Structures are given as C-alpha cells and as structure tokens.
Amino acid sequence: MSYNDIGLEYYDPVAHPTCHNFREAGIRLISHFLSETPGEFGKILEIGCGMSIIEEIKPIKISKKSHVVLSDLNINMISHSMNLKSMNIDIVLCDAGKLPFKNRYFDLVISNLGDPYNGRNMWESVNSILHHGGMFMYTTPSIEWANSFRSGRKEISDKAYFQKKDGSDLYLPSNIMTDDEIVKLAEDSGFRMLSIEKFENIHLLKKPISPKLSHGTPFVTLYACVK
Hints:
This protein is of the alpha/beta class and 227 residues long.
C-alpha cells in the first residue's frame, strides 16, 4: 500500500478533513516564517508536493526568471498539480530520499506534511541539493497531536489511518518524531535549525474542521532550517 492508493481522494475536504486542515496549517506556518525572513528564492523545489502549495505561499514570488520543481513519488498525488506545469515549473516523479537533482542547486526546498518520507535519507538528500545558505521548510503533524490522537482504537503510532470513501481502512507510513529527534536528525544531516513553530488555532482554518483536532493542542509543526 502507498499514498497512491489514497491520492485521488486525499484532498477531498469532506472525506478527509484532517488532511485539509493540516495542509492549510502548513501553508500558514511556512508563509508566516518566510514573510519575516528576508531572502530571494529563484530556484525552488517542493518535495512530496501532491497538490502543490507553492502558489499559496504569499512571500514566494514566482517570476519568469524562477525555476520551480514540484516532485512526488506517487502519480495520483502529483496529478493534482499537473495544471501548474509551465515553462518555469517542472513536474518530476521521484523519491524524496533519492532526489535526482544537481548538488547545491536550489535556494529553497519545501516539504509540507513530510512525515510519510521523514528519515535520514530524505534529510541528507535535501541537504545535498541546497546551496550553502539555502533553506529547508519542513512541516509535519505535531508530536503533541500524534501522542494524543494515535492512542485511539484504530490508530497505529507510526501509521496514518484513512477511511476511504468506499469504507475500507488504509494504513500508510507516517514517521512523526519529537522536536529533539528532528533537531538531531537535521543537524546530523548538515542543517542548522532556525526556528520551530507550531499551529494550534483551529478557529483560523477554513471549514470543515476535523473532529480529530482540538483547539489549543498543536497539530502541525514547522521546522525551518538552513544549510
């Protein structure tokens, strides 16, 4: 089983409101951080992009001089971004842990909800394709949310549980770590952690709001790193 098995319905806000809320929270966290961090990002990569967030991050201005690459391993996920393909936006099918790009090429790499492929291979691969001073924005469901929610009857600690539209259950990889574990992984991979920011205000989100979220408990975390 892979995210390809949920890809065509993953972004349906009624069927999967938690995914819908997580995605928006990640956009808000990344947008807020980049709005307060000066920098020009001409070469941008979004990994595990699914339905890309690149045009929804207001501080990022895509011009004719920009080179944007959207990548994902699963065709059903990245199919939601095919409408963005253009002269300066490329679409690439690839593994986040084996990124097929030139070393030290990108200014900015974004991973919104990267828990399915979180691990040393991904962190080291991202580091290799960023130039010195390049930034990595990584968001994931928060460990606080995982600890409180994944104790439920149908939940498994290292899996994301989905109930598909046809009523079947699906368990897919989801490696959510503590803040200390992520910091160590990032530093061991050659990054310096700039900021850790958490989103917990469900009242700021567009409806529907998932019943799996509760106001005041962080449910998405941003780890902002620099090489």
